[in-house]
Amino acid sequence: MATDGKRMVPMTCYQTAQEKEQEKEREHKQEQKESRFLQWLRAEGATTADLSLANFDGVRGIRANSAIVCGENLVTLPRKLTLCVGNNQPCPFPQFVSAKFWQQSSMHVQLALRLLYEMEREDSRLAPWLQLLPTSHADKPSRWTDAEVQQLEVREGN
Question: Which of 7, 28, 33, 22 is nearest to 133 (CA)?
């Protein structure tokens, strides 16, 4: 890990020029997805505080670009951009899962089913967001060490 004077910057060692080029291509594709996502959010009526998408040593997240004021709304989303489930809600997609299974499932399972259903649809209204979801969960915050969490802290004077 190196520093750019203000923050820790991940360093990657490459074995070949081909691997380096492949990494650059992956990063470019990710930047394109993120740009489409942010454009989609604005077009659909979402608002955010002064935030940006960021990568923290390979872990994706959100960075505050300025001080956050206590009580400030960081993100406001229209309901149409959310996945919601409720008590006794009828099965919204009987072609995907039976109504009986839906009704017997916990709200956590129902939410997971909604996510899976949206991911299977080519015409999902949530496609720009779904394309950003990780394909692996090895970098979950619950698996971070104390040292990794401390790397996210901004230190005064740096």
Answer: 33
Residue type for 136, please? S
> Rounded to whole angstroms, how far apart are CA atoms 92 and 113?
10
38/129 Cα distance (integer angstroms): 9
- Integer CA distances (angstroms), 78 to 37, 60, 70, 82, in order: 15, 23, 22, 7
Q: What is the pLDDT of residues 108-142, one digit of tens each?
A: 999 999 999 999 999 999 999 999 887 777 667 77
Q: Is the whole model's pTM more than 0.85, yes or no? A: no
Distances 47 to 17, 30, 71, 78, 91 between C-alpha atoms, Å: 41, 22, 15, 9, 30
